[in-house]
Amino acid sequence: RTGGRGRRGHPGLGLLAGLIVIAWIVELIDQNIAPDLDLYGVIPRTIVGLTGVIFMPWLHSGWDHLLNNTVALLGLGVIVILAEGRRFATTTLILVLISGFGTWAIADLGHAAKGVHIGASGLIYAYFGYILARAIWGRRLVWAVVGIVVAVVYGGMIGGIFPEGDHISWEAHLAGLLGGVW
C-alpha cells in the first residue's frame, strides 16, 4: 500500500505492480525455460482457447512487446487505480474477462486458420476505454481534464482497433476498448 490517503493508501498499486512483475517473470520463463508458453493464449472459438482468456494479458511475443505493454499498463492502470480505489482488482478482472472473451468470440472470423492471441493490450485498451467513458459521462471537471490528457497522450491507440497487420490482435484492442467503455 502506498499513497497519500492517510493510512489506507492505494492498495491497487501493489496489485498493478504484481501483475506487471508476473508478466516479466512469465516472459523470462518463456524466453529461457519453456519457449512454448505463448501457445496458452486465446485461440478463438475453441474450448482449449478459453484458458487463454485468463493467460493472455501475461503472455507476450518478446521483450519489446512486453516493454511497450508495461509502459501503457502502468500509465493507464494508475489512473484507473485513482478512479476505482479498492475496486481496482474487481474492475481489472472484469476488464480482463470482457477483453478475453470478446477476443475469443470475434478474432479470426472468416479465416480458416485460427491464430493465438497474446498480450496485455486488451486490458490496456479496456483501461483506455474506461477512462474516456468516465471523462465523457463522469460529470466532473477533473475527469474531463484527465480524459483530455489521456486522449492526447494515448489517442494514437484508436488506430489499433482496425485491422493493420497479421501479428497485431486488433480484435483484442476492439474488445478491450468496448469493454472499458461499457
Please write out the topology:
Layout: H1 12-32, H2 52-55, H3 63-84, H4 88-106, H5 121-137, H6 141-154, H7 170-181
Helix pairs in contact: 1-3, 3-5, 4-5, 4-7, 5-6, 5-7
Kindly describe this structure:
Helix 3 (about 65-85) packs parallel to helix 5 and helix 4 (about 90-105) packs across helix 5 (about 120-135). The protein has helices at about 10-30, 50-55, 65-85, 90-105, 120-135, 140-155, 170-180. The chain has about 180 residues and is an all-alpha fold. It has 7 helices and no strands.
Index terms:
single chain, 182 residues, mainly alpha, 7 helices, 0% strand, disordered N terminus
Mean pLDDT: 90
The helix/strand series, from N terminus to C terminus, equals: HHHHHHH
**What fraction of the residues are assigned to beta strands by DSSP?**
under 5%
Cα-based radius of gyration, to the nearest Å: 16 Å
Termini gap: 28 Å
Percent range of helical residues = 55-70%
Low-confidence segments, given as residue ranges, are: 1-6
Structure summary, number of beta strands: 0
Q: Which structural class should the secondary elements be placed in?
A: mainly alpha
Overall 3D geometry? globular
Number of H- or I-type helical stretches:
7
Largest sheet: none
Summarize, please.
This protein is mostly helical. It has helices at residues 12-32, 52-55, 63-84, 88-106, 121-137, 141-154, 170-181.
